[in-house]
Amino acid sequence: MEKYKHYISKNIKAFYLRRLLSPVLYLAVLFLLCLFFPVVNMAFPKTIKEGESLSKLYHEKKPFVDVTLHDLYFTGYKKSWLGFDIGYFYYTMYEDDCVIVLLSPSTSILGEPVIDELHITAQILPNATSEDLLLDHLAEDLSWTSAGIKSSVSPIMLSEPDGVGIRASLLRYFVILTALYSVIIILLYLLYYMRPDFCPAIRKLSPYGNPKKILEEAEEELLTLPQLATEDMFITEHYFIETSSYGTAVVPIQKIIWIYKYSTLHKFLWHHFSISYTLYITAGKRQYIKCPKNTKTDIDGIIDYLSEANHDILVGFSEENRKTVEGIQGDFIPLRKFLDFLSQKE
User: SS3 letters for 202-233?
Assistant: First the structure.
């Protein structure tokens, strides 16, 4: 008797406590990544204040920035990849340093000669081989030496494509959305743990009455009047109850319309391991319950008992039963009404 006291609620709590592991683990991994990589900075670029050093931000692992630049001059060179132009090189003065800035084609208007003022989101990067090659060409154009121009230009650059390109944007939105989703899931699971009557499996009973009262009544019957019990399926005077690792289900027996079983053969390569059976239950108000990985004996016992408790239940899968249930549930009534409306318009 003590075992079945608040048995359904206990199983709901255990189910959501297990499911908490995944989002909590994801946030923990994300937190560890934030310690070694600029994940938060990538998701929320730092707005540069006047006087802040680009080199300092780069070494502090805050390379993604929102910055306002003035008097940008086109170098005459652009960056291409696989035949596509991905950026145009500009130079500007920033805090007494000459900085190379790579702008996306749309921002630069395909190489505007001079841009008076510009606010961009960019990534601070060290000058790579392509930028060194750019400086060599600029040195030739200006009749300077390569060493001379490189000593006059900052060793780091700003790249708008790396800050707002597809790769950066996808990664940024992925981090923000998945972190937000994980937090919401954790809060919901904690709510379901504290209030089992708020979980979807119980809330879906609302077409039959007050979900909380139905849960209390089902638990009371399971505690005092269990009439049939398997490992994770139970029948009381008025309810069918499932409490498995796949979830929890409660449905009034008098609301059940159709029940049938489906077998699954488990095999690896050519070796057959076992056969498991899944019980499918269709109840009124479009309620569908799936009880997977049970034994044939358990499911046959459940089907026999339910069909005796409610003689209106359709037993077994057949095309006739499927069409009958479809008519009872009215699954395609909205579609039929829409098609009739279209035919009238014609």
Answer: HHCCHHHCCHHHHHHHHHHHHHHCCCEECCCE
**pLDDT tens for residues 134-150?**
877 777 777 777 777 77
C-alpha separations of 171 from 42, 86, 164, 165 in Å:
8, 19, 10, 10
Q: What is the pLDDT of residues 299-344, one digit of tens each?
A: 999 999 999 999 999 999 999 998 888 888 876 666 666 666 566 6
Instruction: Show the tokens assigned to 161.
Output: 């494509």
Kindly give the residue spans of alpha helices, DSSP state H, lying in 37-165: 39-43, 54-59, 105-108, 129-142, 146-152, 160-164
Region of 83 please: left (phi>0), alpha (psi -120 to 50) or beta. left
Number of separate helices (H) and strands (E) present in the chain: 14, 14
Return the sign of the alpha-carbon dihedral for residues 100, 106, 107, 109. Answer: positive
Q: Percentage of the chain with pLDDT > 90?
A: 34
User: Alpha-carbon distance 236 to 49, whole Å?
Assistant: 69
Q: 40-61: per-residue pLDDT in tens?
A: 888 888 888 777 888 888 888 8
Residue 73 has pLDDT above 60, yes or no: yes
